[in-house]
Amino acid sequence: MPEGAVMFERLGRTMVRRRWWVLGLAVAFIAFAGIWGTQVFGKLVGGGFDDPASESSRALTRAEAELGREGNDVVVLYRSATLTADDPAFQQAVTSTLSDLPSDVVTGSATYWSTKSPTFVSKDKHETFAVLTLAGDDEETRTDQLEQIEGDLAAPGLESEVGGSTAINRDINERVSADIAKAETLSMPVLLILLVIIFGSLAAASLPLAVGGLAILGAFTALRGLSYLTDVSIFSVNVVTILGLGLAIDYGLFMVGRFREELGRGLSVEDAVARTMGTAGRTVAVSGVTVAVSLAGLLIFPITFLRSMGLGGLSAVLIAMVAALTVLPALFGVLGHRVDALSVRRLFRRKATVSADVEHGFWYRLARSIMRRPVVYTVGVLAVLLIAATPFLRVEFGGIDARALPAGTESRVVSETLDRDFVPNSQSPIDAIVTSSSGLDQYVADVRKVDGVTGASVTAQEGNTARVSITYDGDPISAESRELVSRIREVPAPSGGEVLVGGQTAALADQLKTVGDRLPWMALIVVGATFVLLFLAFGSLVLPVKAILMNVLSLGASFGALVLIFQEGHLSGLLNFTSTGTLEATQPILVLGIVFGLSMDYEVFLMSRMREEYDRTGDNTQAVAVGLQRSGKIITSAALLILVVIGLFSISGITFIKLIGVAMLIAVLVDATIVRALLVPATMRLLGDLNWWAPGPLRRLYARYGIHEEGSATPPAPVPAGVGS
What we know:
Elements: H1 3-17, H2 19-35, H3 55-67, E1 74-79, H4 88-99, E2 106-110, H5 112-115, E3 127-134, H6 139-149, E4 159-163, H7 165-199, H8 202-227, H9 236-264, H10 269-296, H11 304-335, H12 354-360, H13 362-372, H14 374-389, E5 397-398, H15 410-421, E6 430-435, H16 440-448, E7 453-462, E8 465-472, H17 479-489, E9 498-502, H18 504-538, H19 542-567, H20 572-575, E10 583-584, H21 586-617, H22 620-649, H23 655-687, H24 696-705
Parallel strand pairs: 5-10
Antiparallel strand pairs: 1-3, 1-4, 2-3, 6-8, 6-9, 7-8
Protein name: MMPL family transporter
Main location: membrane
Keywords: Cell membrane, Membrane, Transmembrane, Transmembrane helix
């Protein structure tokens, strides 16, 4: 028996013999995490979509250091049906309101009357806006400052609405928190019912929930600890909830099923737990590490949002895995045969042998049917998946703006009003931070000549540093605006000086470049590590390649749907969001990391049972049919349950959270049904014994250190001539 199998069996026996100590420590951890870990929400930050090392970030840092912080933290829109901005009464109402604001909260303000700039007045002159800069070095502090003065911003006799970057970020964060609570409230009753139906008893159904609770609370605790070392995005809570609960259900299904199977063979409780850990426990460990590797690829990005999602996902996955390998066997030891207590399926039980169940099961018959016509199924499924992926060829990447909020949200209404009724992009100019002792006027003149620029002027100057604000027509997150940034960056700096170009559009251009530069490295890390892990799990060089290609097909179908739905706006009315004509670039990267890991989770479950049967019989066709029969229900049940969790995130009011939910829903649905149930058996039949091929030295390596489910150390047989024909 391989050393790893012995280790896991010993771990299982230890957990049973020390079960009360293990459960006591688990309860203590839950208490600590429930008190300390759940306070993580006050430590998380919003935003985090920019690369801190980019030119746009350096421009912002220099501007704040040399010119002082100047931002549109709060934009207050004032409107009158009868007065215009030139009327003294309009001016008096606004200026007196702003002058009463505390100076320790509002450090700066700009209005039409203080700047004399026409950009502050609407085309019909019945609207104007004030820009306020708030005290505070971080978004959390500025949000507190906004809420302190928000009730004092209304001017007498005028209509007023509050927007700006701080208000938008606050509204997004609050909506995300509300959506998480709503999703959990709606999903939990559905999950409980489905768990009871799928597991067949209340006792068994409670086990994955225990692991899920540990995973979620543990991940919250880990994130709070990490928040003292680095910024952690509030959006990481979403991935913690999805993966913590989803993987706990996956691992619970797999291990409970195997534990019942071993008890059914007449083993004692301790022996059944040891056997479960030596087989299913090892598979859970491989799955957990594989999913963790996929999410670890997100850590290569310097963007806080992606890095936070990686940290949150890693925490949830690893804690779910550890809990499944420690707390779950301890609970098995406590429950024993009572794992089926409070059964809801006693009337439907059939007394049948394992072999009869296998040979007459639905999944066995389906696999046999598919393998009789493998070419037809392979070509048909590949055609469907490739056609579904083709829309992704016309993808256009963009960024996040106020349109991520639901229509009618006050901060979004302010943003849309400024774009519609005022000078376009007056609140999102391209800023050039110029550091030079001379030549500023010539630089401004050169910038005005750039194709696409509608105006350029010095809006702040201190010593040798100046801010040049550049206006333009068009959407700030469009490709055309990003190309304009590139043309502005090509304008020569004044002699002996330096220019850093920043602003919303420049930040988006830099973000896309960072993502594009790091994505190949992420792919290399994830694919390489996954290949090694799958070889150690299955002892084959062919299966890892096939598994990776199938994951790419699942992701391609999902990404194609994203273009149709979110970029082109199909189903926008049904899903209740506003299409910007682009996809925010970090979201597909996040979906890639999560879905790649989940797909490999299902792959490991399926192939481990096939590997076990192939080691026992040496018959590839029988191994595929039996493996699908023994894991098909588990995979589809796990997918159904995680779809409940993921699907409810698709009703989020925040567009990019909705996008994540829809993308994962489609990918998991495609992977767990079309790919695992149809394409895998068909391709396994076509390849025959070649599925299990590895050169001699690697076969011996696998025989000694392989992470396969069966305790046997039998290496895969050499491939005879003509296999797979």
